[in-house]
Specification:
By secondary structure, the protein is an alpha+beta fold. The chain folds into two domains: about 55-255, 3-Layer(aba) Sandwich (Chemotaxis protein chec), CATH 3.40.1550.10; about 265-335, Surface presentation of antigens (SPOA) (Roll). The chain is built from ten helices and twelve strands. The chain has helices spanning about 5-20, 30-35, 55-80, 95-100, 125-135, 155-175, 225-230, 235-245, 250-260, 275-280; strands spanning about 85-95, 110-115, 120-125, 180-190, 200-210, 215-225, 265-270, 300-305, 305-315, 320-325, 330, 335. A six-stranded antiparallel β-sheet has the order 1-5-6-3-2-4. A four-stranded antiparallel β-sheet has the order 7-8-9-10, with no helix packed on it. Strands 11-12 form a two-stranded antiparallel ribbon. The longest helix is centred in the N-terminal third of the chain and has 26 residues, at about 55-80.
Length: about 325
């Protein structure tokens, strides 16, 4: 018998081994329990691209910018006077060099600061989307440019206003994390000239799709990890939910504007005393009643008939007045 197998026999043997029809002869009793219960998927880990932001923090960023998409779509609809829909496409973490390579040249790239955070972030608007908006603002129907070119000075001033509106809405959304002041730092058209992080640094890329009646385009936000490192702990789900329960500065301003026109009743008590009905009926003009507050003592100031402050009586010009000194306290209890 020949020891050399033909090609047909080799193919048949390999097919039988792959289907389990032939035992390979490799038996390891100790390895059987591990193999029997382990149909596990193996995930490759690239040490050059470590996941520095956890999945929980990525979900928080996703929820945060879903709200940003809704808010900015409302602002653009009002500004462009046409229906604008913005949808969050993805929230990814990648290296800065990969992000730069994904940007077309020329493009509309703004670097901006978010004081008090250190470093710069990027707002990039696809050129096709930019020319849609420019044509709409200049009285057109919103049509794309026939060629991809750099913006003129007039067109750039128009886009600057849109970018400033985008940063105002970004500030409002991020108020649940902290008080930041986004401010445009520079403008560039060539992505190779934009350097806000080292090439291998991890960045968070927020991709948004902007849709209008006659077209659509992409807009992206890029946050370097080194910029968000000081507040990354606030991006956990629990911290974000707790922050959502707190009123933002915008809500405080709205509440203040609603409360200011309200009229409230303020009165000052000179003192109290207790007399009988008999003494009350015998009172005459000129009679003196002894009150429980000394002549030089603090008076009680009431707001809507509730004791709130203590103060001293006086005069402002010819008008009687009272000076508030402190929160009113009774028996060690502070009323607020």
């Amino acid at each position: 018998m020949s020891d050399i197998l033909s090609q047909e026999e080799v193919d048949a043997l390999l097919s039988a081994v792959s289907s389990g029809g032939v035992e390979t002869g490799k038996k390891d009793v100790k390895a059987q329990p591990e193999v029997a219960g382990a149909e596990r998927s193996v995930v490759l880990y690239d040490f050059r691209r470590p996941d520095r932001v956890s999945k929980d923090q990525m979900r928080t960023l996703q929820n945060l910018h879903e709200g940003y998409a809704r808010l900015f779509s409302t602002s653009l609809t009002s500004y462009l006077r046409t229906l604008v829909e913005i949808e969050l496409i993805s929230v990814d973490q990648l290296t800065y060099s990969e992000f730069i390579m994904s940007i077309s040249n020329p493009s509309c790239i703004y670097t901006f600061q978010m004081e008090p955070l250190e470093g710069n972030a990027i707002l990039e608007i696809n050129p096709s989307l930019v020319f849609f908006m420019i044509d709409r603002l200049f009285g057109g129907q919103g049509k794309p440019s026939e060629q991809n070119r750099e913006l003129t000075n007039i067109e750039r001033n128009v886009v600057n206003r849109i970018t400033e509106r985008a940063l105002v809405d970004l500030k409002e959304i991020w108020e649940h994390i902290g008080i930041f002041n986004p401010r445009i730092e520079s403008y560039e058209t060539n992505p190779q000239f934009v350097q806000v992080a080292p090439p291998g640094e991890t960045v968070i890329l927020i991709s948004l799709e902007v849709r209008m009646p006659n077209g659509s385009g992409l807009m992206s936000l890029c946050f370097p990890y080194i910029m968000l490192e000081s507040i990354i702990s606030k991006l956990s789900g629990e911290s974000w939910i707790a922050a959502m329960a707190q009123p933002t500065e915008e809500n405080k301003r709205l509440m203040s504007s609603e409360i200011q026109p309200l009229a409230i009743k303020v009165q000052v008590l000179l003192g109290r005393t207790t007399i009988t009905v008999r003494d009350l009926l015998q009172l005459h003009i000129g009679d003196i009643l002894c009150l429980d507050i000394p002549a030089k003592g603090d008076l009680v100031i009431q707001i809507e008939e509730k004791d709130k402050f203590s103060g001293r009586p006086g005069l402002v010009g010819r008008h009687k007045a009272v000076q508030i000194k402190d929160i009113y306290r009774r028996e060690g209890i502070k009323h607020e």
